[in-house]
Structure formats: structure tokens, C-alpha cells
Automatic annotation (TrEMBL):
InterPro entries, per database record: CheY-like_superfamily (IPR011006), NreC/VraR/RcsB-like_REC (IPR058245), Sig_transdc_resp-reg_receiver (IPR001789), Tscrpt_reg_LuxR_C (IPR000792), WalR-like (IPR039420)
Keywords noted in UniProt: DNA-binding, Phosphoprotein, Transcription, Transcription regulation
SUPFAM superfamilies named among the record's database cross-references: CheY-like
Residue numbers bearing the 4-aspartylphosphate modification: D66
Official protein name in the record: Response regulator transcription factor
Organism: Streptomyces koyangensis
Ranges of residues in domain HTH luxR-type: 168-233
Name of one Pfam family that matches: GerE
Domain of life of the organism encoding this protein: Bacteria
Amino acid sequence: MSDTSAPSTAGEPIRVFILDDHEVVRRGVRDLLEAEEGIVVVGEASDARQALARVPATRPQVAVLDVRLGDDAGGDHAGIEVCRELRARMPELVCLMLTSFDDDEALFDAIMAGASGYVLKQINGADLVSAVRTVASGTSMLDPRTTARVMARLRGGPADPQPAEPEQPSVLDRLSPREREILELIGEGLTNREIAERLYLAEKTVKNRISAILSKLGVGRRIQAAMIAGRLRERSS
């Protein structure tokens, strides 16, 4: 799933920060990543407070964040709140969520918080390294076992019991009729080329329109706009 995030600078190592409340897991992820050429771990934290203090100081490109952080005030999704806060402070940072639980609600919350990827801790080491490289290159990435469910949801699957804030009508009122039309097609999973063909527009025009839509909705990623479109369709059905 492509994204518009800037890739890491060629020739420079990927700078990674790790947040996990389990020392053994944190150390294992660090050892795994540091054994790889072209990746350097610049910091780590065991709770949200430490992460929010240390990440801006270490300036990583990728933050690997545990979704659940023990007794943190954010509860079961404390790591997602860290992602949301860090992305607000550092829009260039990409976040890869790591979790032991296959949780649809956490997955959707992570995407809406601006995460670039979401993988289960059962993932093997080589795939985790690949996931870090993938999000660092500017490409969004979801664990294969969850991708099918996400796309089904975006295309009009079961309704989400807790709609996200960007769906408020006051936000959508910022879109022109043409932009709303394009948003609906994004929600159907169409590519820029397919949208251009459907609406008889130049592909470059569609790309520019989508950039404007993301800006007006206050989101940074196409999949977030697709989720908003899917939920709007659910509400109107």
C-alpha cells in the first residue's frame, strides 16, 4: 500500500527507536535490528512518558511501538496514543506498531493515529526487519493476516461501533462535491489511474485532488481517508 512519506536518505542507516514495556522483548528487537546492516537503534523506552521525552531528542526515522504498555494511563492502546502524539510533533516520523494481540479495533485506531504499519509479535525476525525497512522507505505496511480484513472493512464490511473524530460532518463540509466523489472512490479501493478513468480526469489532477482531500480531512495517509469514506458509507446504508 503506497504512501507519500519521504524515504530514508540513500546510504545512511535507518535510525530506529523501540518502545516496549517488556525488557526481554525490547532487548530482543534491539539485538535483531542492530545485527542488520543499514539499521541503527538510537534509543529505547519502557513506557509512554519515556518515549515522548526521548524520541524527539534521538530523531529516529522509525519508531517501533508496542500497542499495550502495561499500567500506562492509555490502557490497552497506550502505544497508539504515543504514536498519535509523536506524529503530531514529528510528522516525518514513521511508526510501526508491534502487538501480541490480533485486535481489529487496535488496528483501525493505529491507522487513524498515523501508523505506517502494524505487525504481530509472532512475526519472524526476517519479516520484522523487512517491515522496518518497508516503512522507512515511505511505504505503508500491514501484516498479511490483517490486510484482507482491513480492505474488507474499507469496502463496506461490519460497522465500527466507535467512529473516529475525522468523520464529523463539519470536517467533511470542507470538501467540494468533486472531492467527496473522489473520496468515495478511494473508499472503494480504486487507484489514482482508476479514479481518473472513472471521472474522465487526468491522473495528475486526481493526485493533486487527493492531496487536497488529505489536507482538508486532517489526515496524512490515503488509507485513513479510505477508512473515513468506508464509515460514511456504512452510516448512510
